[in-house]
Give the backbone structure.
Amino acid sequence: DVKVTQSSRYLVKRTGEKVFLECVQDMDHENMFWYRQDPGLGLRLIYFSYDVKMKEKGDIPEGYSVSREKKERFSLILESASTNQTSMYLCASSLTREVQPQHFGDGTRLSIL
Amino acid sequence: AQTVTQSQPEMSVQEAETVTLSCTYDTSESDYYLFWYKQPPSRQMILVIRQEAYKQQNATENRFSVNFQKAAKSFSLKISDSQLGDAAMYFCAYRMKTSGSRLTFGEGTQLTVNP
């Protein structure tokens, strides 16, 4: 069974801090994704990666960066956290083969004070 | 750009009854995939059902079925014999066939199941 693990379930940080959210998958998936989930807005794609050291901007990349040094790990970085980045963050992974579904982690609820 | 719209922020159903969740989407593509995901309070996103646009037959998974109307760009989810465990947030999602597996999600519908 596919396992996508996010390092923290809840996280509280302060404005201006550099924040790292970590995601690890154990099924050798090529693709990894970071979404943020806000009430009434659904899930919005921040960044995604099709391979090691490759990254693509999603729909809302401003204020975020990512790192994928190893195939199994995809990190989301908030360079200087702001209160409007308080949200639920979901990581997902998938195979490249057609119609393969995305598998999600349990989410990190991040609060920026 | 593709968009997905779920016009029902909240829905409720009595246990054992049937409920239909609506989803519409906008795309200029002719071949694509559509999904329904379920997110219970545990926050784990679970794939409920998927539909390939070139298949005319509506997908079915046990008590879950879809009504896929390609011309109308509509993709509704029907849950039959609703159970308390069906209570969750439901998301409709779209994926282009040619863009790898990037998904575009709707806003979500919160389903309550009343005993």
In short: The interface with chain A takes residues 4, 6, 9, 33, 35, 42-45, 47, 50, 52, 91, 97, 100-108 of chain B (CB under 8 Å).
